[in-house]
Amino acid sequence: MYIPVKLSENIFYAGVNDRRTALFENLMPLDKGVAYNSYLINDNLITLIDTVEVGQIDKFLKKIDAVLKGRKIDRLVINHMEPDHAGSVKIIAKLYPDIRLIGNKKTLEMINGYFGITNNLIEVKEGETLNTGHHTLQFFMTPMVHWPEAMVTYVQEEKILFSADAFGSFGTLDGGIFDDEMEFATFEDEMRRYYSNIAGKYGSPVQKALEKLSGLDIKMIASTHGPILRKHIPEVLNLYNRWSRYEAGEGVVIAYASMYGNTEEMAETVARKLAEEGVKAIRMYDVSKTHFSYIISDIFRYRSVILGSPTYNNELHPNMEALVTKLLHTGIKNRYIGVFGSCTWAGAAVKKLNEFASAINWEQVGIPVEEKQALKEEKYLACRELALAMAKRLKNC
Ligand SMILES: Cc1cc2nc3c(=O)[nH]c(=O)nc-3n(C[C@H](O)[C@H](O)[C@H](O)COP(=O)(O)O)c2cc1C
Ligand SMILES: [Fe+2]
Ligand SMILES: [Fe+2]
Fold this sequence. Notes:
The protein is an alpha/beta fold. 35% of the residues lie in helices and 24% in strands. The protein has 2 domains: 240 residues, Metallo-beta-lactamase, Chain A (4-Layer Sandwich), CATH 3.60.15.10; 143 residues, Rossmann fold, CATH 3.40.50. It is built from 12 helices and 23 strands. Strands 1-2-7-8-9-10-11 form a 7-stranded mixed sheet. A hairpin with a 4-residue loop joins strand 14 and strand 15.
């Protein structure tokens, strides 16, 4: 037995938790799991909003059946085609052969491309509405949040926004499904890690989406991942506004690679001096230990970044190379950067980190430090100078 969770009198939660998948997009660790949220409008035309990852179909169908008790679904709104949501579309379409799939022009092309479905489709355009009986669904395009076909669905009567990936979060819904049923603050880190790694590249499309949605009276945001928001809406909109503008708080992320501890010693030296200079928010990561998604999430949070790497076969350490490549792809703006490195015969790491700093167009702070072999007094003091310069830059920003 399952008692369905209601968003309103006739709108139900039909999402599922996934605590088994290790990596989201086969890339990002899911330490706290992830929820795939889907919603069901029980109206004259029974309407499903998005589906779930296909491996979760069994749990999903049970939740649907708890509401419908054998009745058929008439409509499926597809806000986003990424398979973590659209993965079950083909099965749903087979189970309900008369179902009409609703999406925009780009969605319908993808439905054909992924599933070979070309009929029973309804195309919707910007601002258009569809009526299910007692509910009016209005559609707004939010391209690149997170794919080009992404859109959101607003239920006018209930003022609920089905926002697809926007405002979503990693982390399962452990009993609490609404933000006021849980310790919501515990979700902020996973929400930022989700945003920064999934949509972080698309700051300007996110800004456009926020502007568009600012005209709506929203009482509830029902994303495809994470808690349904009905209490913390202004807070989360504000976070999205800051993140998509690449605004950040006072703090330093130190990320280093180190095989034998020499570069790490430099990182420790930098961190200590930052603390002496009054920087409280210092996040230090060994890139071989911590997945880049966590480091990037903190780089979205803090204004300063200090990177250190040993030279490895005339290149950066491969794990630092992976981090800087991902940062370049993400294109975070408006950060300060300091760099350091270690080598034994001919240093290349600092040169490569300098190249990265100019490629990403971050303001370089302090004098780069590169030590040969063990860390000695002169470079130890140079690491402290680098930290001092960064602490001063942060305070004057
Ligand atoms: C696989 C490997 C490749 C390396 N390649 C270079 C190199 O191309 N140039 C160089 O000057 N040092 C090279 N080194 C030496 C390291 O950069 C140097 O020992 C550095 O201090 C290591 O820093 P760590 O203790 O933080 O790992 C290499 C070391 C290893 C293990
Ligand atoms: Fe997505
Ligand atoms: Fe998603």
